[in-house]
Amino acid sequence: MIKLKNISKYYQSNSLIxxxxxxxxxxxxxxxxxxxxxxxKSTILNLLLKIEEPTSxxxxxxxxxxxxxxxxxxxxxxxxxxxxxxxxKLLPKRTVFENIAFALRFYNYSxxxxxxxxxxxxxxxxxxxxxxxxxxxxxxxxxQRICIARAIVNNPQILLADEPTGSLDPETSWEIMTxxxxxxxxxxxxIVATHNRGIVDDxxxxxxxxxxxxxxxxxxxxxxxx
Amino acid sequence: xxxxxxxxxxxxxxxxxxxVMMLISVITITxxxxxxxxxxxxxxxxxxxxxxxxxxxxxxxxxxxxxTKTERSKxxxxxxxxxxxxxxxxxxxxIAWKKFVKEYPxxxxxxxFENSPLPNSFTIGLDNNQYILNxxxxxxxxxxxxxxxxxxxxxxxxxxxxxxYIKILGLIxxxxxxxxxxxxxxxxxxxxxxxxxxxxNIMQLVGATNNFIKGPFIIEGILIGILGSLGAVIFLKxxxxxxxxxxxxxxxxxxxxxxxLEINIILVSVILLGIILGILGALLxxxxxxxxxxxxxxx
Lengths: 226, 299
Known about the structure:
Chain A has seven helices and ten strands.
């Protein structure tokens, strides 16, 4: 499904971000990317979204080489990948419904179909009552759930989460991670870049530990520390 | 159809959010296009005047009061012998006056004079207007009979030259104004883009194509262009109507163009230029914005 082959990434200042990463993630897997800040976790996510390009190496999703993907095809790649952020990135001047429907706009769906899909996804994250609220009226955990709803509303095969619990309290973090597990059970590949030791140790999944741009450890049912 | 509706509603939201810049853009376009339209109308009228002079280019020889009937027919024969003279028509002073009164009915000249104040005259047509100056100088040699020789050639020529310079001046002004206007439109739309940087980023991340992202901004440009040019058209209409009324009073012998078709062509071209300005402004501000944001970091 996702394959990184000898991926390296330098910046112009010669600082090494990723050093010869080899990694395969299968369809339907749940993977934690762990490691200290600046280890290169976010860079891997950026490479998968083709926001950044690797300096060398090859990168495939479903057998398609991202390096050979034309710029004009990037949108179609991204429609298959949902993204969740630490700071949610919801649009403050739009309602919950509008925020989620945002991701469906360019499909030329009918209004009723958009309504139905938004409602279904809100049902999944448990926030159907907040349809007409503005993000500022919601708690952090609720905002993150809306962000998740937006990420999965068009049923992507891959879900990327960059520090999804970074600004949430432990209890809410737990709820969010449970939600991500639930989404994973629908056969969506989930990749979570996180610092959250408690979560990683409690919900045991595959753990890939990145340190100084290299894979330090890759363990099924792993913990935060080896 | 769905996305067109979306583009328009997004464009309206964008314009509302940066309403001051939007108004400045609209006003700038109105002013620029108004000046553009004024130059077009002036040059249309100058050309019209030149054409009307050219089309009845003929020589008028006004005769002295003292010229007798026999002298008159002698003179006529002499004129007909000149090179390039095709025809000579005699107009008596009374007929000339009747014609004049009829041509300018709004001046109420009917009972102003008992006798015609105009002189007797010959109207001379040429087979080729090119030789008009030769014929004129020949006519001037009949000093004892000729009061004055007049022909429209020089005026027509000057009018055409003047109209040409006005066109060039107008063109230069329009180019400068267009650039200035474009600059302001670009900045207005860029302001909306900055306002919506987050939205653009998120749209890109959820898989919106660049064309889809551009849509609302291009519609915004078009709306600004239409609003601005409509303003210009309204002012042009008012100013031109006012001019026609004034001109008929003060300079009644100047033929102002009142042909609806020609004027409407100018007004439509003003609106088209406004729309083109809007689209161009949007595309210019977007070409930078999308490049800048597409590889923005997620975090």
